[in-house]
Each structure stands twice: as C-alpha cells, then as structure tokens.
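testing teh design pipeline on a random one, pls ignore if ur not involved
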C-alpha cells in the first residue's frame, strides 16, 4: 500500500521539520515531512551534518555541567 493511498483527501497536510542529535554526539539529522496528523507521512528532503571537534567538546562540557544541577527553580528566570 502506498503512502498516497493512505492520505485522507479531506484532511489538510501539515509540514514539520524534525531535528535529532543522538547520544553519539557525531552530528545532527534534519528532515522535512508532511503528515495528516494521524499516520500518513510523505518524506521530504533530509540532511545529516557532522559536528565539528569544537562543537563536540562544547556538548560534552554542557553534559558535565548539567550533572552538577541538583535543583531547578522554574521561577528563577522571572524578574
């Protein structure tokens, strides 16, 4: 069964862009899809970008810094 046959012609399609970076911290993946919000998806263009050495170092440091956070005060940013 093709994706086109699953689409409900009465249901408008929504375009969405997804970004993902996995735990390997090697890069980021980006993809465009069209969906009716239920199950039908049309895949669009996609791209994988490698992180630079400096970006990986920054991410590793951010993860180490995050381990030090023991409490989050959601009101602390409200002036």
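output:
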């Amino acid at each position: 069964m093709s994706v086109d046959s699953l689409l409900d012609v009465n249901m408008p399609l929504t375009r969405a862009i997804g970004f993902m970076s996995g735990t390997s911290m090697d890069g980021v993946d980006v993809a465009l899809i069209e969906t009716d919000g239920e199950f039908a998806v049309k895949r669009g263009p996609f791209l994988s970008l490698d992180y630079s050495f400096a970006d990986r170092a920054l991410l590793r440091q951010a993860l180490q810094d995050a381990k030090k956070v023991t409490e989050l005060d959601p009101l602390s940013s409200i002036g």
